[in-house]
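Tutorial handout. Part one gives the primary structure; part two gives the three-dimensional structure as tokens.
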Amino acid sequence: MEIFGIPHQAFLGQLMLGLVNGAFYAMLSLGLAVIFGLLDIVNFAHGALYMMGAFAAWLLLDRFELNYWLSLVLAPLIVGILGMVIERLLIKHLYGLDPLYGLLLTFGLSLILEGLFREQFGVSGQSYPVPEALQGATNLGFMMLPNYRAWVVLASLVVCVGTWFLIERTRLGAYLRAGTENAKLVQAFGVNVPLMVMLTYGAGAALAALAGVLAAPIVQVTPLMGSNLIIVVFAVVVIGGMGSILGSVITGLGLGVVEGFTRVFYPEASNVVVFVIMAIVLVLRPAGLFGKEA
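Part two.
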């Protein structure tokens, strides 16, 4: 059986690969959108935080023999706390300034973090085993579905939908949005806005780290893994609309699938198709597909 002239197993395999890539794009762009949408900071250190999440999982296993399931909790918590320290020491001084200052600061921070990890671990990469419960594949009749990749897509969807609901549909999310627009007014109602902002940045960092833990069994854990991905993720955020949480999730998943299909029909264009789409979107709708026009 063929789909568009391609054997169906190869076609569905690329669809699955695209969904997995899209899940990582969605989670990383989600963290970026949360930080930019609520704090107006273009967080270029997001790729480094993603890399640190993967390394935290590897170190927890290698040095402390803590398994994957514990790392899913501990690694985002560790990186989230580091994110809060970064926000208190560095980021807080940039609120109210042009976003370019935040971009330059976080870009420099990402280079420092990447350099430290390269000095300590080199660039060859470390392998992280797939957890025993998720090894193997499930026969769906029309294709073999790798269990771990299915778990990545499912976990990413749950996290993305949960984050969107928390920010857009709960009282806490309303406080966050109000606090970033009029901090003095919200503080007058007894809300600790600086603490809330610090926790928001920490949550964005934790989302990046969680994506890193999910990626660890699929890719080599290396200091370069974040810098190789962050440019594409920024393109995803721009296409979806800067600060749009729903836009980041939908666009991330969609572009992952588009990229996967491009590898089937025109492999040479698979590395640039996201940027071509970004250019078209910026010409037709500068605010992004889901962004608000100024």
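Part three, for discussion. The mean pLDDT is 88. The domain at 2-122+140-284 is CATH 1.10.3470 (ABC transporter involved in vitamin B12 uptake, BtuC).
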